[in-house]
Specification:
This protein is an alpha/beta fold. The chain folds into two domains: 116 residues, Rossmann fold (3-Layer(aba) Sandwich), CATH 3.40.50; 95 residues, Winged helix-like DNA-binding domain superfamily/Winged helix DNA-binding domain (Arc Repressor Mutant, subunit A, Orthogonal Bundle), CATH 1.10.10. The protein has eight helices and twelve strands. Strands 2-1-3-4-5 form a five-stranded parallel β-sheet, sandwiched between helices. The chain has a four-stranded antiparallel β-sheet with strand order 6-7-8-9, with helices on one face. It has a three-stranded antiparallel β-sheet with strand order 10-12-11. It is globular and about 50 Å long. The N terminus and C terminus are likely disordered.
Length: 244
């Protein structure tokens, strides 16, 4: 009988940097049960040596750390050339901190309190995403954004977007393949000025579609009924359940 050896892809190794011990241990346990190799650090000072000695595929980083805060820690890592994806954890009322974290080099974010399945979806999306050499380029499906020069493209066609349209598109690209709620977009783009009962997000999404989609092209921004919007992570015409 002929024997076959199967090469299995090793599980991704994650580092959780979270000073709330109970939350950190809960995340470590849940992500381990989901099939990842997971370490937990309670501070930037604890996380630094771990990152220097272990190859991690992704870091989950709380911004409100004791000692060196998360933004300073992340900035230092990016300046040193670290390219691992970073998923930011932030409180709902810390909009400015969130924007600073993304500008510093964060790849995605989850707002506390959050559902564990949402965290898992964000992690899976980031682990699927190819790394940028300099950290300034974002790409998902047909969309590419140069975050340093504030330029964007669908395929080879450069898009003429307003600053807020570009912020919305960047938000969708960072969360490509998963649902982004209207409130998440509104709070990210307009901060404290966002009024949840207004239709401003829907209006800007319609403007964005008109600039991204040419006649004959499938729409890259999908409306998920009752939830929000999602950017197609590939260039196929497949629709997700509930998508229009």
């Amino acid at each position: 009988m002929r024997s076959f050896s199967v090469l299995m892809k090793p599980p991704a190794r994650l580092l959780i940097v979270e000073d709330e011990l109970a939350l950190g241990k809960t995340l470590q346990r849940g992500l381990t049960e989901a099939g990842y190799l997971v370490d937990h650090a309670s501070s930037a000072e604890d996380a630094g040596p771990r990152l220097a000695s272990v190859h991690y595929n992704l870091m989950v980083l709380d911004l409100g750390l004791p000692g060196q805060d998360g933004i300073v820690f992340l900035r230092g890592l990016r300046q040193q050339g670290a390219t691992l994806p970073v998923l930011i954890l932030t409180a709902r009322d810390d909009t400015e901190e969130l924007i600073a974290g993304l500008d510093t080099g964060g790849d995605d974010y989850v707002i506390k309190p959050f559902a564990f399945r949402e965290l898992l979806a964000r992690i899976r999306a980031l682990l699927r995403r190819p790394l940028s050499a300099d950290g300034s380029m974002l790409a998902a499906g047909e969309i590419t954004i140069d975050t340093s020069r504030r330029r964007s493209w669908r395929g080879r066609r450069e898009l003429d977007l307003s600053p807020k349209e570009l912020m919305i598109l960047e938000c969708l690209v960072r969360h490509a393949g998963v649902v982004v709620t209207r409130d998440m977009i509104g709070e990210t783009v307009w901060g404290d000025d966002y009024k949840a009962l207004s239709n401003i997000v829907d209006v800007f999404i319609n403007h964005l579609r008109q600039k991204i989609d040419l006649i004959g092209q499938s729409s890259l921004i999908v409306t998920i009924r009752g939830e929000g919007y999602s950017l197609r992570a590939d260039s196929t015409n497949r629709k997700e359940p509930g998508a229009v």
